[in-house]
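I am still getting used to backbone structure tokens and would like to learn alongside you. Label the sequence line and the structure token line clearly, so we can match residues to local backbone shapes. Would you write everything just below, so we can both look at the same thing?
***
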Amino acid sequence: MKLSSLLPSALYLFSATSAALEQRTGVVRTGDGVSLSYTQSGPRRGQQLLFIPGWRQTAAEWRKQVDYFAGAGFRVTTYDMRGHGESEKPDFGYRISRFAADLNDVLEELHLKDVTIVGHSMGCSVAWAWWDQYPKARSHVSSFVLADQSAVMVRDPHWTEEQAAELSSIFTADAVYDLANDMAAQLPGLVKSMFTSSISESDYQWILSQNTKMSDANAAALLIDHALRDWRDVLPRITVPTLVVAGNASIFPPAGIEWVASQIPGAEHYTFSSEEKGSHFAFWENSGKFNALVEEFLNA
């Protein structure tokens, strides 16, 4: 075979690989003047995915999803929320409503259209707040993937045990304030509880180091606001296709996450078993299964 006949194929493969590996970094300036660090990977014309991490977590923790989906031809955007990761760390704005406004700024400034938002933990709450607060901007979003967030984290003291269990309301108000006021001491154990016992020490230490990029004071303020929210009236008003993911080994018992799915019209749901490493961080501990679920949902 002549070299000239191989050249077009070689050029195509090089072009496809370059497109998959294309990466852009930058900052989005929010409406109140805070710089948020973002990264975009994958071909520019690929189907849009936006990943939102959880409380104290960073965009870097989505790296197993970024590598997979960018390589599969998707255009993947991640960003660090204010106070988190590589973003600016002001001493104001640590409330979910402000984080929803920041998300809206990200969508607008990066011109994200027909995007699937994948939220983990508090990232789901940010997405729910955005959906509630910005109805005229909903056309930006084509679907949601919601990973392991209950609609109500703090139980009403007047509820029965059964009512609290149905919603996976795992905290009392006192417990939230106790955690917020003892953050430095409790953070290592809290992070460890979000994984199965099979998490490697190196992975645990790296995740913990990502958490400590946010100050304890800002994290405490955000935790209190996040934990005391109630999203039950928002869920039935979500009108785009939605996949809800739970885990049998999560800090949130799966019943409450499955309840979330039951409240969103037409939502699909999947619960990771304990054998599938269904922790709060199933997307990290079993990225192959998580990525396959998301891709199947997107291609349905």
Notes: The beta strands are 23-29, 35-41, 48-52, 75-79, 115-120, 141-147, 242-247, 268-272. The longest strand covers residues 23-29.
